[in-house]
Amino acid sequence: MPIVLPESSASAATSLTPRQIVAELDRYVVGQHRAKRAVAIALRNRIRRQQLPAEMAEEVAPKNILMIGPTGVGKTEIARRLARLTQSPFVKVEASKFTEVGYVGKDVESMVRDLVELAVDMVREERVAEVRHKAAQNAEERLLDILLPPPHGLVSGVDAPDGGPPPGETREKLRAQLREGRLDNRPVEIDVRERSMPSFEIIAGSSIEEVDINIKDMLPGLFQGRTRKRRLKVPEALEYLIQEEQQKLIDMDSVSHSAVERVEQTGIIFIDEIDKIAGREGSHGPDVSREGVQRDILPIVEGTTVNTKHGMVRTDHVLFIAAGAFHVSKPSDLIPELQGRFPIRVELEPLGKAEFVRILTEPRNALVKQYTALLETEGILIEFLPDAVDRIAELATIVNDRTENIGARRLHTVMERLLDDVSFDAPDLVEKSITIDAAYVDRMLADIVKNEDLSRYIL
Backbone phi, then psi, for 227, in 5-degree steps? Predict the structure, then answer.
């Protein structure tokens, strides 16, 4: 029988064809069609694998991807948007942060643990959404019990015997007032659990999981926290009680199990700067642990079992996307075993003026749209004319050519410098309508661009 995928991931992922995935990525990332095709195919192959019988699916390895290209061309953004499309657990790590076992630095298995923690948060949020209505009902009943304690010996909401107004009727009137907001300024006293943490540290070898001891189980009383009375306004008290009820209704063991399953079937790990650990033969000094880091990463990518506080996690079917500029080193400098685990290789093209014009205007999160929206909050209506956008792209390309090529990130620097005066004076401006044309761009930036020494520092 086919592998069962967690519901939210299945509904999002199985409906997307490679062409649709590329079209969605096009809304946020300009160009890089080959890279988008590669990730779309890899994602679709993962969906196909989940339709196979379990015995066959177990044998189908993920087609990991190695992206090669300079900084600022969209490598990370492609991977991040891909994960959002499919609601997959996604974590980005820097390969240069890891060190070989025995050296001071992050343990390579921490990338899997981070992914699991992220998946737990995702599943918990989904479960919270499912129980929110029930939790709100329970919290409302608890708050009404505080506002109108039931007569001694009676259950709340049950009519009283002869000799007084029915408590049920009074309670419903109070409920109506609560929902209408007429009790919002009324203070109530509730029991709040303090989060007390012990004042000691544990120093482990490379990770706390390796100790394999759950201190909360050994010393339960130390971590439970005391309750104390606290006076809160009704809305704050209701929100606190809703959170308490949500925790009661959610089975964290089930959340952990679902999160581990989601990581194993749909997790994506993006390893950036992998070129920084591509050691060269005969190197010494800082390069001493580079090959060791590769050998430590290798079993994670090949498929191993990692111990986390939510259970054992297999990485056999986690999708790995690695990226690096490879200015100094080249992919063949990686150890052969690691090279073999990234069968799909795609080179990303450097960005030029034409791509910069599109980046400034086309994507949903385009820079021109962002700055227009930001200044609109101050009442400033700013308009970028086409010749201004063209000139901004041209100047960014010139600076990239003359100094360090940092790709599309240069546009952020240029735009900040261009709008420096407007952003600073915005609250005090009398003229609320500003038009940015090519002449304005030249007036603000041309002198800096011409002065090569100055542009190195400012742009």
Answer: -105, 145
